[in-house]
DNA sequence: CAATTCTGCTTCATCGATTGAGCAAGCGAG
DNA sequence: CTCGCTTGCTCAATCGATGAAGCAGAATTG
């Protein structure tokens, strides 16, 4: 096993030799505590200049191995195919860097096995803290982290072992459903139950949104038709198939829908355009998620936008304060359009 | 500075003590080359079982420090706010994992300084290879990598120092422009020059797309109006402002546009809907990029979808074959709708 | 039966950075 | 001139994993 032949990397020992000093002086200078270590400003400057000239780059592996904290912060995220998770990741990286942490993010494609594997990999890389975003089994991840003495936080979907930051799904869904119900009533002159499409029936967010959906119906004095709650998964094909087979079964679909994510909306829209179920007028839609192009699709769509900046502020507040109690923080989402 | 108090992590030394053997035996067993190191199957099994029971996790920092290859592969990416980069990252992670590599991805928000900082950070983490996606200065990154003896590959935007994989922007733009020109001619009965909006005039992709745009005009015998080539940057606001001030200047805008990315399209669409420039009929649009909801916006939009799977196959082919010559591989994009 | 080979381990140096402990020179006080 | 303090460094152990080299004891060979 040979070293990379091309260019052996410059180490603090090389710099020490060049500067005619010791490696420990170099180390002290390069990580800024040379005052504490009583290195003269002269030597400090010489070493700094040399490091610059030689293009020295710290070997994090060696540094992390020696220190107690790695300053690496991990995040796992289900998908990169929508604005919500995309902005979570961007915001996360920005805020991590502001705190002098190195963010590493990985996408698990909603695959439970990959989620666990990814969490283990992050622990191997000695992350100080792991954020599980939209995880299918947050508690499993929390357990793995806790066994390694690593802090964990849940985002988007809550768990019961560590703190969680999620949207106020009930309130968001309540308001969204209200608007779609009233849009339908305004246009079609009658109160009628809506269709709910998308999401996993077992996940907390979906069940809270269904609860909001029901509450808005109750408020309006409209009975929810249980056949019309399709928690079929998030994927576009699943939403499309669910709605297709429902249409085959019941004949006529409602003039209003609650769609649980832009991803599911993709399938719903596809079906609406392919089938000739709504030849005259588009149904009124409410989408629990936000996308700029969906907003342009027409006036018949209302959206709820999750407040990503506030959610991540809450996440970092937990991290900064070292809170570990498994409380759930709910951030109100933003209802985009004015009905 | 104290160690994490809670749970000190299990190391190979702990396992060695528990198994009554040496750390090197444990190491040999756990990384699978115990046959080569002549460890008995019996001991191997005992160690494996113990590791399982104790929830042992390899310390990658220590392991990487000792080995010559880190098996970490880095990628920098400009943004997570569109399907193109999102699918690049997902595909990259999947393919990296298939090869037993650990992917680390970071987003630089089109900030040149952050790009360099991110590249340096990745080198500190001893990546074996760095993929610079849509970098503003790929050659700078390649130089930094080369100084550290690390391989680099450019994706989406080409450089001159290391291999690059990009879309065939000229061909894609040519075909897209042809379609929009012919859509306009069909509807409005006259050949007229289109508007080009979005992208940086200095980047290779944009200039190739402008070249394709011009070639299609030439082919159709239509003169390109130089005032109508707005390479104003990618951001929605920039596209919106550019088009707004152009409208103020020239009065009437063309009935067809070539929009250079979905991100710029966001601004263009916003302007179209806010201004009353096209009260009767929407202009025909061609977008060099793909998004499912844009596709639903109407028949007046044509899209070119970059072939992400083939692009990443090409990237990994370069990596697997250790090619280093700075050739540019152009992957034909897919023209989505049939005009 | 001695010489050699094979088996199944252990020992120890090493990767690069960090940090507590320690050492020598200089300087001021007594 | 000596004692003690400060200044400005160096030394060496350490983090955890890896693998070349080496070393007993058993098995095989001539």
Which secondary structure elements does this structure contain, and how are they paired or packed?
Two copies of one chain form a homodimer.
Chain A: H1 12-19, H2 23-30, H3 41-54, H4 60-66, E1 72-77, H5 83-98, E2 102-107, H6 112-124, E3 129-133, H7 138-147, E4 151-155, E5 164-167, H8 169-188, E6 195-197, E7 199-200, H9 204-219, E8 229-230, E9 232-233, H10 236-250, E10 256-259, H11 262-274, E11 284-288, H12 292-295, E12 301-305, H13 308-321, E13 328-331, E14 334-335
Parallel strand pairs in A: 1-2, 1-3, 3-4, 4-5, 5-13, 6-8, 6-10, 10-11, 11-12
Antiparallel strand pairs in A: 7-9, 12-14
The first copy, chain A, binds a DNA duplex (30 and 30 nucleotides) through residues 1, 9, 11-13, 21-28, 30-31, 37-40, 43, 58-68.
Please bin the fraction of helical residues of chain A. 40-55%
Assembly category = homodimer
CATH architecture of the largest domain in chain A: 3-Layer(aba) Sandwich
Stretches of chain A where pLDDT is under 50 for at least 5 consecutive residues are 1-6
Shape of chain A: elongated
DSSP strand (E) fraction of chain A?
15-25%
Q: What is the CA-atom radius of gyration of chain A, in angstroms?
A: 26 Å
Give the integer mean of the pLDDT values of chain A.
94
Superfamily at the CATH H level of the largest domain in chain A? Response regulator
Pair with the most extensive interface?
A-B, 60 and 61 residues
The class by helix and strand makeup of chain A works out as alpha/beta
Largest sheet report of chain A: 6 strands, parallel
With strands numbered from the N-terminus, the spatial order across the biggest sheet of chain A is 2-1-3-4-5-13
Total of DSSP H or I helical runs spanning 4+ residues of chain A: 13
| Euclidean distance between termini CA atoms of chain A | 67 Å
